[in-house]
Amino acid sequence: MKFASPDFSIPETGLPESEFPVGFPTETVWGLGAPPTRAGWEALIRVKGRDPKQAFQVSCASGELALRLAREPEVLEPLTRFWPGPLTLVVPAQPELADYLARGGWVGLRVPAHPAAQALLQESGGYLLTSSLNLSGQPTARTEAEARALGLARRVIGDGGQPPSGAASTVLRVGEGQLEVLRAGALPLDEIQAQLQGTPLADLSFVSAAAH
Fold it and tell me: Residue 125 to residues 62, 102, 114, 135: CA-CA distances in angstroms?
């Protein structure tokens, strides 16, 4: 079937809507995913008990697909070397994206490295609206047994013997003149800084969100 909205479309997928939300492993923690449509967004809000004003991220099968959702993809190119991997970027969104995908004009982008997550994204047309697998405000599932026991997903994809590390992804907001650290995580900041040397982003300062 095809999941689509006036603001955002993904290709054909063989997965029926009845299989969502789906629980799946990433290289960091367990995730919960649904199609990037209003119905998918509403399903995640409902099962997690989450404030509708809070944003979800869009998980993508590749950096190329992720950059299609960014307003200034060329600026982000140096950071795509960390994808697939434990880095989430919050960036100015393409103006065509619906508000439920891009709260306040910003969209969170993630390209997970876990093979099970990648297989799910390929089956789903390359994009899913995703969140950590937990009730809002509660600890995130860190094992397959916990993911199944929570009962939030209609289907849980096994980790294939490759359990998540348990460390959440690093989250950066790419703003004008700075990289705001919204969450320190599995990808060390000094590794990001080292890799950005010699790129147009090398002069950006890292600012902690806690400082605002």
Answer: 11, 19, 17, 26
State how far the Cα of 9 lies from the Cα of 37, in Å rounded to an integer. 8
- How many CA atoms within 13 Å lie on the side-chain side of 126? 14
Residue 81 to residues 10, 23, 37, 102, 209: CA-CA distances in angstroms? Answer: 24, 26, 28, 23, 23
Global confidence as pTM: 0.90
Q: How far is Cα 208 from Cα 152, in angstroms, rounded to an integer?
A: 32
List per-block mean pLDDT (blocks of 10 residues) for the chain, which spans 212 residues: 39 62 96 94 95 94 96 93 97 94 96 97 94 96 94 95 95 91 95 92 84 52
User: Which tokens is 136 given?
Assistant: 């809002």
Between CA 93 and CA 58 the distance in angstroms is 11
